[in-house]
Specification:
Elements lengths: L1 H10 L13 H17 L7 E8 L2 E8 H25 L2 E5 L7 H12 L3 E5 L6 H6 L2 E3 L2 H13 L1
Parallel strand pairs: 3-4, 4-5
Antiparallel strand pairs: 1-2
Helix pairs in contact: 2-3, 3-4
């Protein structure tokens, strides 16, 4: 995550950056999914509450979340996360995907699909051999980060 935030900071020299990683609702949903899945796998009830750490730039903060409340809001929260990210894409001039880890995020690919559907340039940094889905939806994929940064710098002045 630190690497992604450093990249976003660098990128903000050239673009207005809408970074969904700076909105931390997904951290809580992801922790809820982990706890609910773990309980289901063990044939147990989910705990009445759970703790979730949110890594704010000013430092981490731990929240205690109520399971009953999570059950009420999780469907809407998932929808709102996707809807919000797609609205960011709709208002952007291009989509930049910075994905230095091998396990590709479903959300990142969906955002690339949305970017291509909206006729936006979709630039991706992915240092591994891309899947056909990743390659198809990218305007340009760079496997070398230095080359990726140079590409984005050039594109910002075009």
């Amino acid at each position: 995550m630190e690497q992604a935030f450093e990249f976003a900071k660098w990128l903000s020299q050239y673009y207005v950056v809408f970074n969904p990683l700076t909105i931390y609702d997904w951290n809580i949903i992801k922790e809820w999914q982990r706890i609910a899945d773990e309980a289901a796998e063990k044939g147990k009830q989910t705990p009445e509450s759970f703790q979730c750490e949110v890594p704010y730039p000013s430092g981490p903060r731990v929240y205690t979340c109520d399971t009953a409340e999570m059950k009420r809001i999780v469907v809407d929260a998932r929808y709102q996360i996707v809807h919000r990210d797609y609205k960011m894409i709709d208002s952007a001039d291009c989509v930049v995907v910075y994905h230095p880890r091998k396990e590709i995020s479903v959300g990142a690919v969906c955002e690339m699909v949305e970017g291509k559907r909206a006729v936006k340039k979709v630039y991706a940094y992915y240092p591994f051999e891309p899947s056909p889905w990743l390659a198809y939806h990218a305007t340009k994929i760079e496997r070398d980060e230095k080359s990726f940064r140079a590409l984005l710098e050039r594109a910002s002045t075009a």
